Amino acid sequence: MVFYECLMTAKNTAHYNNLTALMKDISLKIVNNGGIVRSIQNHGVRQLPHRFRAKYADREGNRYYEKGRFVSVFYDASPGIMRQVEGILNLDEQILRNTHLKGRNKFMDVNNVREAKNPYIQEILQEDERSGAN
């Protein structure tokens, strides 16, 4: 399992119920395939760095957005499930952009077997060298 952070930008006009249903769909996809959803965070409506273009115009004819709602989902899943989550997000009209990042946490360092890459083993080796020199 890999720890992922999915940051998505939704239309600022997206209805709360639609976004909640989308988060439930994503969470069910992850959990039903053996993953773990750690948290979902709503960062609120913010100004976009530049205007984003939606795939389709909405009912009022708006296709360009200068504000967007940012939402993060943190989860553990296999790479195949991550691609399925991306597919769900790409098909949703409310989502303007989405990005998946491979998250890092301390457990990745602890579980690293290679001594040269594991900071905890390096720390112990350095302490042994110091105590052996005295």
TrEMBL record:
Belongs to the bacterial ribosomal protein bS6 family. SUPFAM superfamilies: Ribosomal protein S6 (SSF54995). CDD domains: bS6_mito (cd15465). One of its GO terms (molecular function) is structural constituent of ribosome. This is 30S ribosomal protein S6, chloroplastic. Coiled coil: none annotated. GO terms for cellular component: mitochondrial small ribosomal subunit. It comes from the Eukaryota. GO terms for biological process: translation. InterPro entries: Ribosomal_bS6 (IPR000529), Ribosomal_bS6_sf (IPR035980), Transl_elong_EF1B/ribsomal_bS6 (IPR014717). It holds the Pfam family Ribosomal_S6.
